[in-house]
Amino acid sequence: MMLSRSRPSLPHLLSLRLLGTGASRTAAVKQPDLLSATLAFEEPGAFRVKSLGELLRALGIFGLCSFPVLVNNCGKLMSVGRTLLGRRVFSLLLRPTVYAQFVAGENESEISQSIEKMSVLGLRPMLAVPIEEDLGESTGEKRYDDNMETMLECVRLSHSNAWSKDPMMQLKITALLSPELCVKLTTLITQQPYDLNLLVRAMDGEPIKFPGLNESEVAHFLCGLQRLNKIAEASVNKVRVLVDAEYTYMNPALSLVTIAMMKKFNKDGAWIWNTYQCYLKESRSVLLEALRLSNDEGFCLGVKLVRGAYMDKERKLAENEGRLDPVHQCWEDTNDSYNGSLDVMLEAISQKPERYRIIVATHNEESVRRAAKRKGGLCSIQVHAIRLSGRHGPLPGASGSGESHRIAGNSQREGPAEARVLQKTEPEGRQPIGLLHRGNPLHTLN
Fold first, then answer.
1. Percent above pLDDT 90 for the chain
2. Which pLDDT tens digit goes with each residue over 162-172?
3. Dihedral angle at the C-alpha atoms of 156, 158, 163, 164, nearest 10 degrees?
4. Phi and psi at residue 430, in whole multiples of 5°?
5. pLDDT digit string (tens) for 196-255?
6. 27-32 contact pairs (CB < 8 A, 24+)
7. Cα distance between residue 136 and residue 15, in whole Å
């Protein structure tokens, strides 16, 4: 199906993440035996909502994903396929295969049916808008406004449907603010940090002048901040908004904006969350700085803890620019980074559970067990776990794990939504199935 040139249809812009409800229940103090019993990752009942055809389709798709030549050239292959077959035939071939593997539905009714099926496994949803831009892909204020409307509709869907008692959604700031400006802001704040109060005032519509930006850049920054402000205003006390991290050359700007939103909207609870990528060597210091700001500025901190998904590009950029590789050298180092940051957050939550919250966003079984064990041993706190479905390894069927279905992957460029899903998900799943069994993937996976 083609995307609209004016305003994209909502189903083509949402992803659906399902979180394990068991993981978010309040844990009794000192009950590790109970936790071990509930975290049955090999529970065969997890497959009972899948038909034989769905399982065979998954096996076939991830078999193809294990061939690097197909994954590394998927964009070119899809372009050739659309040219030779035509958009209609190409879409007909892709929809019942790759698209169906990662998509929970194309309208609210289909999404609800998928959620109802997955609720049997103790999972609950988190809608996401996976629109993002990189350098050279800026689409202009009109498209950013359209993206904002889509995100507001996502807030409405998350809040109005009885899908979850604690609804969440996910977004990327580069869908609302140009990556070029984010890169420039990153350079500027490295030299002279911006005052958070300045950004909060700009969100309220005050005509602020930001040092280092020209008139057009200031105008665009103000528009972007006000778009984010509208989303946050619609979400506070209703839906928790998880802001994704992206590339290292723009992450400081994304964090600056997200922290400013936290300062304004997280006074009484964690409604705006930030994402911390533990495959980066600097991740621990970035997380500790966020904890410091939360304490100094008096706002609640929501943390989505991931490993990361941009390893190849980050390493290539570092090599081309002659700087140190920002990514940990091996999977074990990333695991240590992830688990160390997890311990930091769980300790903070144990001290001030009303001020801090965390989502353990991982495919790694050990990390989920670690979080469940720590929360059981510390105090009665909430920890959420999340992972992707349609991916490698068995579906989660126990407390402490979660699952995600991608409804569509689209970064506001032309082309069928199903094609954007394939390009986004195949590089993340390039490892042979055997290597990825039971949450033991390369550290590029969240």
1. 43
2. 777 888 999 99
3. -130
4. -80, -15
5. 999 999 999 999 999 999 999 999 999 999 999 999 999 999 999 999 999 999 999 999
6. 27/372, 27/375, 27/376, 27/380, 27/381, 27/383, 28/376, 28/380, 29/376, 29/377, 29/378, 29/379, 29/380, 30/376, 30/377, 31/376, 32/373, 32/376, 32/377
7. 24
